[in-house]
Amino acid sequence: MTITALVARIISDREAALNVGSEHGVKIGDVATVYREIVVTDPESREEIGIVKRPAVRLQIVEVQDRLSVGQTFETLPAKREEVRDNAIISPWAAALGAMVQTVVRLTENPDAADRWTILVLKGWETVIDPPAHTA
After folding, report:
1. DSSP letters along 64-109, please?
2. Residue 83 in 3-state DSSP?
3. What residue ranges do the domains of the chain occupy?
4. How far apart are the first and last CA of the chain?
5. Is 124 helix (H, G, I), strand (E, B) or coil?
6. Nearest-5° Cα angle at 76, 3 to 2
7. Tens of pLDDT along 65-112?
8. Strands 88-89 and 106-108
9. Most buried of the four, 1, 38, 47, 118, by CB within 10 Å?
10. What is the pLDDT of residues 11-68, one digit of tens each?
11. Going by CATH, does the domain composed of 3-74+107-135 fall within 2.40.10.410?
């Protein structure tokens, strides 16, 4: 069962609150995909000609209340050891070899702070919640 929600608030650099909870069927372990909207304008007239929605980030639901839920980033991206900040997942082999490591995706409401590992997510962005793949 797919549930549609909105981002209600960014709680931390790894968590976002959504405006749906157990009353709507959300369960811990569900996966929420937050979508960004890209406004497309005509290059000649400068008029808006449409909106394209694309996935921005996926969150795993870690807390559920009656009317809200909290999703946490869980996906990782490769990074060179010297690029890694907090939230890094470093295997002993990778650390010993100075090889590529994984860093957990972060969230921000500040467009200037967005980069490869920090994804812009704004209040009101549409979110689609699905049960974990193994129970779908």
Report:
1. E-SS-EEEEE--EEEE-GGG--SSEE--HHHHHHT--EEEE-EEES
2. helix
3. 3-74+107-135
4. 8
5. coil
6. 10
7. 999 999 999 887 665 544 445 544 444 545 554 445 566 788 888 888
8. unpaired
9. 118
10. 999 999 999 999 999 999 999 999 998 999 999 999 999 999 999 999 999 999 999 9
11. yes
